[in-house]
Amino acid sequence: MAEYQESEKQEGVAEMTSDSVGREISGNASPHLEDAAVPAPERPVPAAAHPVSRLAQVDAFLVACNHCPELPLGSKVFKRHIWRAAGHTHPRQFQYWQSGREEATEEDDRNFRRIISMPPGEFLAHLQKKGILQ
Fold first, then answer.
1. Which whole number is the average pLDDT over 6-22?
2. Residue 11 has pLDDT above 70, yes or no
3. Bridge-partner residues for 25, per DSSP?
4. Which H/E stretch holds residue 128?
5. Which residue has the higher pLDDT, 1 or 72?
6. How many whole angstroms from its chain centre is CA 17?
7. Averaged pLDDT of the chain
8. How confident is the model at residue 115 (pLDDT cuts 50, 70, 90)?
9. How far is the C-alpha of 126 from the C-alpha of 55, rounded, in Å?
10. Model-level pTM?
11. What is the dihedral of CA 57, 107, 124, 95, to 10 degrees?
12. Residue 33 or 67, more confident
């Protein structure tokens, strides 16, 4: 048996040993090199890194518009003003877009994002120009 082990060592087969954690490593490998070759486990993405929901974007936009000094006295901006400003006569496509449903088209996405990215004063002027808000 001792002769067999000697012949293995002579033929270049490395001897297996254990590192401090109990993993088997070859006799000529460094435990640090083996650790470097193992990829780190994936960590979950923190919640703050997720994009803000469309509902939250719309709500924030409405709050900004309703606090705008250019808003006529006694007026208030609602979600219907957003979908009407985008040229819709019914709220369905806006509801699909806001909830992220697949029925919303890419054109809906472009139009509604364009509307809610407007500065509040510009949006109010746009509503007045289209006759949506007096």
1. 54
2. no
3. 17
4. helix 120-129
5. 72
6. 45
7. 80
8. very high
9. 22
10. 0.62
11. -50
12. 67
Structure tokens at 36: 């470097």
Helices (H) and strands (E) in the chain, counts: 7, 2
Query: The tokens of 58 are what?
Result: 């719309």
The structure tokens listed for 38 are: 């193992």
Q: Tokens standing for 107?
A: 């054109």
Per-residue pLDDT tens digits for 23-66: 665 555 555 555 555 665 666 545 545 567 999 999 999 999 99
Catalogue the E-assigned strands of the chain: 16-18, 24-26
How many residues make up the chain in this entry? 134
29 in helix, strand or coil? coil
Label each residue of the chain as H, E or C: CHHHHHHHHHCCCCCEEECCCCCEEECCCCHHHHHHHCCCCCCCCCHHHCCCCHHHHHHHHHHHHHCCCCCCCCCCCCHHHHHHHCCCCCCHHHHHHHHCCCCCCHHHHHHHHHHHCCCHHHHHHHHHHCCCCC
Tokens of 30: 């460094």
Distance CA 22, CA 68 (A): 66
